[in-house]
Design goal:
about 210 residues, Endonuclease III, domain 1, 11 helices
Length: about 210
């Protein structure tokens, strides 16, 4: 497998290639100067946190994650299984998310999913391996590979923040439709993940807050 660019290092050259392809990305990058690249620990803890963050606001996700950290200390499959669905729901997770966490914990504990071994797989194979677990779809898999592994050509489909950011940068009256943005992103390969980081940073800029 060929060596991938370190997304957590200097990506100015790749950003220049992106903005040459799309005027909206150029507008976004001009406003933020450089993208904030989100970096998270990987493994079970990283995927647990991303499931917590599915389809909830940032403050809600942070509150639930804080309670999980306080309750468990070390976020591990064993801790999640010991808590069970009831314990996870008591920390603020919805019933479906509690079931997803338990399914993930069982899969990792059984060795069916080797999160540490994903780095040796190409993007498609790594995403497919993650999506074998109940509750992990294309968006969740993409977020894990972007934030926890620093991959550059992964695109999170249907991301609402990306739709809003691109719509604003393109001068649209509202957010762009998901299918239109996902289709446009095909032209940004092999830097689709980097484009997502540009737009997430721009979204934080539009909302007047620091990117997280």
């Amino acid at each position: 497998m060929e060596k991938r660019l370190n997304v957590f290092a200097d990506v100015s050259r790749e950003c220049a290639q992106l903005v040459a392809r799309d005027a909206a990305l150029k507008t976004a990058l001009k406003a933020i100067r450089r993208p904030h690249i989100r970096r998270r620990p990987g493994g079970f803890e990283g995927l647990f946190r991303i499931i917590v963050e599915q389809q909830v606001s940032v403050p809600s996700a942070q509150a639930i994650w804080g309670r999980c950290r306080s309750a468990f200390g070390e976020i591990s499959p064993e801790a999640a299984l010991a808590a069970g669905e009831a314990g996870l729901k008591g920390l603020g997770l919805s019933s479906p998310k509690a079931r997803y966490i338990i399914a993930l914990a069982e899969t990792v504990a059984a060795g069916t999913l080797d999160l540490g071994g994903l780095a040796a797989k190409d993007d498609e194979a790594a995403s497919a391996a993650l999506q074998q677990v109940k509750g992990i779809g294309p968006w969740t898999a993409a977020i894990y590979l972007l934030f926890c592994e620093g991959r550059l050509d992964i695109w999170p489909p249907g991301d609402v923040a990306l739709q809003a950011a691109y719509g604003a940068a393109a001068g649209l009256p509202g957010k762009i439709e998901a299918r239109r943005l996902d289709a446009a992103a095909l032209a940004w390969a092999p830097w689709r993940g980097l484009a997502a980081h540009v737009l997430w940073t721009y979204y934080a800029h539009l909302r007047g807050r620091r990117p997280i």
